[in-house]
Amino acid sequence: MTRRLGPPRLVVSAIAVALGLSATTAAHGQDATTAMQANAATVIVRVEGAAGPVAQAVVKAGTAESVTDDAGLARLVVSPGTVTIDVTRAAFEPGRTSVTAAAGATTSVTVTLDALPVLDEHVLVTAARYPRRIRGLPLRVEVVE
Asked: Where along the chain do its domains lie?
């Protein structure tokens, strides 16, 4: 059984009112997505490491998520106000910063990631193969007095 919520304009108007926008603007044909984006803020995040821009870093701010390009840049569309940005990438310590984003404006921020230390250990694995099972080999017994 499918229930219909009502005409699409009513739903769009309800969304617009919840976002603090004019219900008449949404009802008179303005695209709801455009109306919602007018109340959003854009944050451009630049992720750098010691060797330069960090590509393929995951950038999150609340429910918004993006991945940096080869230039180390990611774009997030967030709600206005103070935004906490978390950045993660393999082989780097996670980074976190906060920025204040204004509605309808673009804010830029740079996050510097520190590389994780690389362990330079060498492990040598050797093995011997006996034609008999170990169970069949005699055990060496020593008497200690």
From this structure: 1-39, 40-117
